[in-house]
Design goal:
342 residues, alpha/beta, TIM Barrel, eight-stranded parallel β-barrel, two-stranded antiparallel ribbon, binds 1,3-dihydroxyacetonephosphate
Length: 342
């Protein structure tokens, strides 16, 4: 292994430190505006900065969080003391990361399907992000289950972009977090989520290997195997854990450095319970099975804060509480009793 790729592998291992996970704080302008609107806040650059500063300066964050994924605007912002966010995180022992895709666009001739944009100029952007302090990156592809979706054309288009992105990231000495997300929206059952996740992950890994991406320096960010939000089916954490581990065992190469799940719109408690069940079922898995949550870590602190300066400390405690629970779940040590002793 050459020295450059060794650096990438080493960073990937640090991100997967036992008992820690990743905070996804990379909401795009439109996503953060949606989240802020729910608590009656306007999304301004200054309010977004204050909000992210509140998260990044929360006491003890480094005990539970190994890395933070930022958005382009955020990695260029500074704390109230004038310290760039990437520096602030690094000084706390947290690895700065960056979302590098440019969001989803309608896939021409495939109504309801999307592809992720952002390959044009990516090499140059990666070089700049590394100079700004980033050491890992994220790219998200989305798939929606419907009567005729996801189509193989949509899967192939998105996988081709994910693989090119992963290779370019490693070439720029950045760890890629590869995120093929099957949305929870829809009335599909769990079996269907399992089937499509298996289909997508097996094609994805085939292409990653063929394109010489170094799996030891890559993190997979998948969805958990869940019934659709509008399905009649209900599933317990054990069932979800077993199905999720089954798919991963069947499709993800053991060489992959680690797996960090998205929360995908589940409640904070459900996402945590399910991560815990995944860890209980996946005790003998070759990878760390941790979190890279956005909503499941941020929903509660955001609703405590609501833009009020006097609520910052309380919101930080709510945030750290969720991070502590997720951290416990990442080693299979979470229990609902923890929720009663906030
Ligand atoms: P959620 O945990 O809210 O699904 O977000 C994770 C993420 O980064 C989506 O790209």
């Amino acid at each position: 292994m050459n020295i450059e790729i060794y650096t990438v592998v080493n960073t990937a291992h640090n991100l997967m430190t036992h008992g820690k996970g990743i905070l996804a704080a990379d909401e795009s302008f439109s996503t953060i505006a949606k989240r802020f609107k729910k608590v009656n806040l306007d999304s301004t650059p200054e309010l977004r900065r204050v909000y992210r500063e509140m998260l990044f300066t929360a006491p003890d964050l480094e005990r539970y969080i190994s890395g933070v994924i930022m958005f382009d605007e955020t990695i260029r912002q500074r704390s109230s003391q004038g310290v760039p966010f990437a520096t602030l995180l690094r000084e706390r022992g947290i690895i700065p990361g960056i979302k590098v895709d440019l969001g989803t666009k309608p896939l021409p001739f495939f109504p309801q399907e999307k592809f992720t944009a952002g390959l044009d100029g990516l090499e140059e952007r990666l070089t700049e992000y590394r100079e700004l302090g980033a050491r890992f990156t994220k790219w998200r592809a989305v798939f929606k289950i419907g009567d005729t979706t996801p189509s193989i054309e949509c899967i192939k288009a998105n996988i081709a972009a994910l693989v090119r992105y992963a290779a370019l990231s490693q070439q720029a000495q950045l760890v890629p977090i590869v995120e093929p997300e099957i949305l929870m929206e829809g009335s599909h059952d769990m079996e269907s989520c399992e089937y499509h996740t298996r289909r997508i992950c097996s094609l994805l890994f085939n292409e990653l290997v063929n394109n010489r991406v170094v799996l030891e320096g890559l993190i997979l960010k998948p969805n958990m195997i869940l019934p659709g939000k509008n399905s009649e089916q209900s599933a317990g954490a054990d069932e979800i854990g077993a199905a999720t581990v089954r798919v991963l065992n069947r499709t993800v190469a053991p060489a992959v450095c680690g797996i960090a799940f998205l929360s995908g719109g589940q409640s904070s408690v459900s996402a945590t319970e399910n991560l815990n069940a995944i860890n209980s079922m996946g005790k003998s898995s070759p990878w760390s099975l941790t979190f890279s949550f956005s909503r499941a870590l941020q929903e509660q602190p955001l609703s405590v804060w609501r833009g009020r300066e006097e609520k910052i400390k309380e919101a930080q405690s709510a945030f750290i509480y969720r991070a502590r629970c997720a951290s416990a779940a990442s080693s299979g040590n979470y229990s609902s009793a923890l929720e009663e002793h906030k």
